[in-house]
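Input chain follows. Return C-alpha cells only.
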Amino acid sequence: MVAFTINGKRANAEAAPDTPLLWVIREHLKLTGTKFGCGAGLCGACTVHVDGVAVRSCQVMASDVAGKSVRTIEGLSPDSSHPLQKAWIAEQVPQCGYCQSGQIMKAAELLANNPKPSRSDIVAHMDGNICRCGTYNRIIAAVQRASQEA
C-alpha cells in the first residue's frame, strides 16, 4: 500500500512498490486524464507533477511518491478554468488531443517557475513533450497567451 496526496486529497493505493505511478493513477485511482504514450519516458503524454516538479509518470514507481503530493490534469483546475486550459482552447491547440494533458502539465510547471517566459524559454522547457499532430506553434502560442492572462 502506498499513501500519498493526489490533487489535494489523501490516497492509498494497493499496488506493488514497483508499479509505475501512471498505472496507479489510471487503474487504481481511475483518473484517466493522464495518458499512456510510450511507456519509456520519451513522449511526455503521462506528465504529472510530483511535489511541483513535472515527471513522466510511466517512469516513477509508486514507492517513489509515498508521502508526496501528486497533481494530475484533473487537479489543475476543478472546472477547466486554469489560464493554460483556456488558452489551449482559444489557440485551438488540440487535434487528436492525446498529448494535451501532458503538454499542459509541463507548461504549468514552466509558468509556476517563470510566469513570463520568452518564446525561447517555452521552446526549451517544452522540448521532449511530443505532439504527433505537430501543433507546436499553437502550443507555444497558448503558453504565451496563458502567461499574459495569469
